[in-house]
Amino acid sequence: MTERKPPGVPFESWADKQIRDAQRRGEFDRLPGAGEPLPDGLDSTYDELWWVKRKMAREGLAVLPPSLALRKEAEDAFAAACAAPSERIARKIIEDVNVKIRDMMFKPPPGPPLGKKPYDVEEVVREWRLRRATTDARGTAGKSPARDRPMGNHAGHDVDDRR
After folding, report:
1. Which of 55, 100, 101, 132 is 20 to 30 A from 28 (CA-CA)?
2. Which of 23, 26, 21, 24 is nearest to 3 (CA)?
3. Could you tell me which residues come within 8 angstroms of residue 96 by beta carbon, excluding any fewer than 6 positions away?
4. Digit-coded pLDDT (tens) for 104-155
5. Which pTM does this prediction carry?
């Protein structure tokens, strides 16, 4: 809209005329998203942080409380240690995450309890050796017989921090 509303003309009829003129000129043709369904979430209540949430989702970011982020990091570290190419690397991965777990145990941040205790490095390395031996014997990566329990139920198992 390049011109001003003339005095004495109701705003609604003036705006409608501007839209009709723009349609006649083809200014609404080939707009991005034309003919596509509206994006999800338009029928929900207004959220002041909608743009922040959309940006975070687009960038693949997530904000977790520190204890939940460390819990996820510990589980990922255990999986990485089990897949490590050498015992030395497996030990290093577990020792590094244990430092973070101990630090959070003694200086808990706000948020839900961590629910983890440090891993027993020797037990993880024993399991690493067992998996390696099973993999080498079969020639394929697979579950070891001692590994029929879900990931996380081992020396660094979940604990009840409500004591």
Report:
1. 55
2. 21
3. 77
4. 888 876 777 778 889 999 999 999 999 988 888 777 554 444 444 444 444 4
5. 0.45
